[in-house]
Design brief:
This is L-ascorbate metabolism protein UlaG, beta-lactamase superfamily. The chain is an alpha/beta fold. The chain contains 5 helices and 14 strands. It has a single domain, classed as Metallo-beta-lactamase, Chain A, CATH 3.60.15. The strands form 2 sheets. The chain has an 8-stranded mixed sheet. A 6-stranded mixed sheet has the order 5-4-3-2-1-13, with no helix packed on it.
């Protein structure tokens, strides 16, 4: 055998030996399975919150999912139509319309907090601490279908998480009086309705926001882009507006904007 043939045989033998030491590639039994498709079958792991953070997700209408670093989940204006994808530990409700309360809340919810007095003998009074969140309410009034007043028929719910104070105005129908503002205290993030008809008119809501002076203002309850745009047109010379691509936002005291800012999350 010639020398070149010997060298070629040796080279082939070494190559086969090297390939034998490499790990075999895993084979899928599913035809056409691509890596990105396979990854969708894995459970989605959300990033753990730091101890001074809170995560808000705009579920729709007046419902937000609020999550705390300790894992407590809260659904605002919990109802039978628009619900978060997880069972909350706490559900707050208001009674102006059926899209703000539930007749059949999930029995797995630990605490269901109606924003009106169920007995008809006065306002609802809530002051609940669960894990790392305190939930309390500030009663307000609502209009009746007959044009009268249902006193204490709505609640502004306040969520205290670490150093953050979040207020959800619910189905607010009237300007806030000094007593309401004192009961609210300092508010860092306010979630407020902007439809301007079923709730307080847009001019009145603008005054409410000025009186609360929150660093972050997130609109809700606007039924469509036209209503929201009309409200934002009123605010463009007062506060900056940030439009986000995702319905979820994570905030902490340290990351609040330096000046009051309107943050718009996708949804309606």
């Amino acid at each position: 055998m010639s020398l070149p043939a010997v060298l070629l045989r040796i080279l082939v033998s070494l190559t086969l030996a090297l390939l034998a030491t490499l790990p075999a590639r895993a084979q899928s039994n599913e035809p056409g399975c691509r890596p990105e498709m396979a990854s969708l079958r894995l459970p989605i792991q959300r990033v753990q919150l730091a101890k001074d953070e809170a995560r808000l997700t705009f579920v729709g209408h007046a419902t937000f999912l609020i999550e705390t670093p300790g894992g407590v989940k809260i659904a605002t204006d919990y109802n039978d139509y628009v619900r978060p994808p997880v069972t909350p530990d706490i559900a707050t409700m208001n009674k102006a319309h059926s899209t703000h309360n539930s007749r059949s809340p999930d029995p797995a919810i630990k605490h269901v907090l109606p924003g009106w007095g169920l007995s008809g003998q006065g306002a609802a009074r809530h002051d609940l601490t669960l894990g790392d969140v305190r939930v309390r309410n500030v009663p307000t009034n609502i209009r009746t279908y007959e044009g009268g007043t249902d006193y204490d028929g709505n609640s502004i719910f306040v969520f205290e998480i670490g150093e953050l104070c979040i207020a959800h105005l619910g189905h607010l129908h009237h300007p806030l009086e000094p007593g309401h503002l004192r009961a609210l205290g300092r508010v860092d993030i306010v979630l407020f309705p902007v439809d301007g008809s079923y709730t307080l008119d847009q001019s009145g809501m603008l005054d409410v926001l000025k009186s609360i002076q929150a660093r972050v203002m997130i609109p809700m309850h606007f039924f469509g882009g036209g209503t929201l745009s009309r409200f934002l047109a009123r605010t463009q010379d007062i506060w900056p507006v940030e439009r986000r691509d995702q319905a979820t936002i994570t905030l902490s005291k340290a990351t609040l904007p330096a000046r009051p800012t309107m943050i718009v999350l996708p949804g309606h």
